[in-house]
Amino acid sequence: MHPLIRPFKFRLSYILPRSPSRLLRPQPVLSSRYISTRSSLAMPRTAETASFKFNHTMIRVKDPQASLKFYTEVLGMDLVAKNEFETFTLYFLAFDNGTPTTAENRFSREGILELTHNHGTESDPSFQGYASGNADPGRGFGHIAITVDDVEAACARFEQLGVRFQKRLTDGKMKHIAFILDPDGYWIEILPNTFKP
User: Distance (Å, rounded) from C-alpha 162 to C-alpha 182?
Assistant: First the structure.
């Protein structure tokens, strides 16, 4: 075992398979108790990847006005760029935190959210919306995460603003995190910036 990697504890349990023909063979399921991480687990960057950064992620939105209102007014992000094309428009948002994002530095920073609006979806009565990634069909993408100083205060504010919750702080076993929903139903995790796994 690599000297920097700590053991991973797990519990082995059994569930019945969905297929009746396999009822006699219980299927093992690994259920993690915890995974310990430390900064020392980071492998050294190679010369080839030393300049790589996680610049942005993109989600598609039905109504850009509703989405921009949510991300700028509810979450406090800044609209840092907008690119209009014939059939779609791209909106780039970030937490600038005193350092303005410009056309010159936009691709050298991290933590940008790109919203893609395909023109016409906002007024098309037959448009069913996009898959959030957390339900079938379309399961895959999970969530965006935002850290805050005070999760309880942030959630109280979201309640006052009428934000929809997927998970409140009082739900489930993890009482230190919440999940809110954006106008398209994408999950946004809210967790403390002092979180220690």
Answer: 11
Structure tokens at 104: 């010159």
Phi, psi of 196 (to 5 degrees): -125, 110
Q: Which residue has the tokens 């010159």?
A: 104
pTM of the model: 0.77
pLDDT tens digits, one per residue of 61-104: 999 999 999 999 999 999 999 999 999 999 999 999 888 898 88
Residue 95 to residue 111: CA distance in whole angstroms:
8
Report angle CA 34, 35, 40 to the nearest 5 degrees: 145
**Known catalytic residue at 189:** yes
Q: Which of 48, 86, 122, 189 is catalytic?
A: 189
